[in-house]
Amino acid sequence: REVGLSRTARVSLVYLAIGLTNAAEAVEVLSAGYLLERVTDNDSARTAVAVGVYVGMLIGGLTSGILSDRFGRAIVLRWSVAIAAAAATASAVVPNLPLMVLCRLASGGGVGAATPPLFSLAVELAPPGRAATAVSIVASFWMVGSLFAAGAALAILGPTADDPPTWSASASWRRFALVCASLPLVSTALCFACVRDSTIEVLTAPRARISSSGGGGDGAEAPSSLQSAEVVLLPQREAWWSVCSRLVLRRGSPMLPLMLAWFGLNFGYYGMATWVTVLLGKSFAGGDTYSMALLYASANLPGNIVSVLLIERVGKQPLLAAAMALSTCAAIGLGLAEISPDGHAALIVALAVAFNACATAGWNSLDALSTSSFEAPVRGTALGMLTATGRVADIAAQIVNGVLIDASTPALLAVTSTCMGLGAVGAICTSRTPNGD
Fold it and tell me: Measured by CB atoms within 10 angstroms of the end CB, which terminus of the chain is less buried, N or C?
């Protein structure tokens, strides 16, 4: 027990820790976009740098979900973010491209492994009936990471990406990578200091008593599930493949449509997030590219505000479907603006900002819908499967966008809008969650 801290203060510190861990994921993902043109001018090498973090996230997310269900959320979260912090720090001093890709792979594995336990904790510590809002707030910390990365790039790398690639010890991108590593280092310290399974059991115990006396919330957000997530876990130590097959094949399971939604949103969002500086650089040759990227990152704010305010009123599923549909329309508009002979620079920026804002609202809704769609003892495993599906889409997006960014930007945006549209279909087809939302 933490002496001198109230229950509210302890819960707030846990939420701050997991929120900053989500922000650290944003930094690790988005920093690649600022490093691509600073470390190499070879398209294949750029794709390797961009893909490395997503391959790591695929492996980390898939394995950590089942581990967090079996051994506890806290221990998996702490060591996952610690690995990410160590790898991110090492990436600032590596002497060559192969080691850079290896560090990106390791940092991706760390932040990817942190995702299932951090969102499981977000819903399991939330007040009854407020889990969707709590998850949206934690998901909103992505904006903190994206603005941090964009601001650091503008301050350290300068306004444009015109400098030639270099591996010198004094290269500005090394300072940028080191600054980016500070966020996962801070989140690691907070996770080790504040997030422990014993603390979580103490914090959820009063709500479990409420549940046993007939009060509490509903279905997947019920306080009884909160305690079982950390105390009972997977009681029979069921085999991983058996849990996964049951989650997919069970009648009425939302897993398959949620997988489609995760694939579509990951492909569109992360594809744009990584390559947006290159795309804007092509549209604004010689312009203030990183300032434009900072404006793009700031579009997270309206998306977060809308999702936090509306998610309990409108519902997770309708808000997700609407956000992805609007993102699809923005991507289509971007493609049309790119092929316009007049350029329409202001329109390109406006549509890019609209795409990011709508996709952000979609992410918050998808995270909330996914966490509430599965029972607590298997929630980490389910989230691991869903994030793994998303990482496959991330990897595909980096490869496809790496090929198309120079060949045909409109074709890139056409593929992006198609995948976002498929994700919207998955959101519409998702069955109602256990709590009836």
Answer: N
8 Å CB contact between 127 and 101: no
Residues 280, 413: contact at Cβ < 8 Å?
no
Rounded to 5°, the CA angle 262-306-355 comes to: 55
Phi-psi region of 40 (alpha: psi -120 to 50; beta: other; left: phi over 0): beta
Phi, psi of 343 (to 5 degrees): 90, -55
Question: Which amino acid is present at 235?
Answer: P
Which amino acid is located at 186 in the chain?
A: V
- HSE-CB of 353 using CA atoms within 13 angstroms: 15
CB-CB contact of 233 with 388 (8 Å): no
Distance CA 260, CA 422 (A): 7
Instruction: For residue 290, give the nearest of 158, 103, 390, 112 by alpha carbon.
Output: 158
**38 Cβ neighbours under 8 A, 6+ residues apart:** 157, 161, 163, 165, 166, 171, 172, 173, 176
Distance between CA atoms of 428 and 425, rounded to whole angstroms?
Answer: 5
pLDDT band at 110 (very low <50, low <70, confident <90, very high): very high
Burial 368-404 (b: 16+ CB within 10 A, else e): bbbbbbbebbbbbbbbbbbbbbbbbbbbbbbebbbeb
Phi-psi region of 189 (alpha: psi -120 to 50; beta: other; left: phi over 0): alpha
- How far apart are the C-alpha atoms of 334 and 341, rounded to whole Å? 13
Q: Which two three-digit tokens encode residue 180?
A: 């980016």
Could you tell me where the DSSP H helices lie in 197-254? 197-212, 223-231, 240-249
> Using one digit for the tens of pLDDT, what is the confidence trace for 37-96?
788 878 778 778 878 888 999 999 888 988 888 888 999 999 999 999 999 999 999 999
User: Comparing 174-178, 406-410, 424-428, which segment has the lowest mean pLDDT?
Assistant: 406-410
First to last CA, the chain: 35
Cβ burial, residue 98 (10 Å; 0-12/13-18/19+) = exposed
Q: Which residues of 56-71 are buried (b: 16+ CB within 10 A; e: fewer)?
A: bbbbbbbbbbbbbbbe
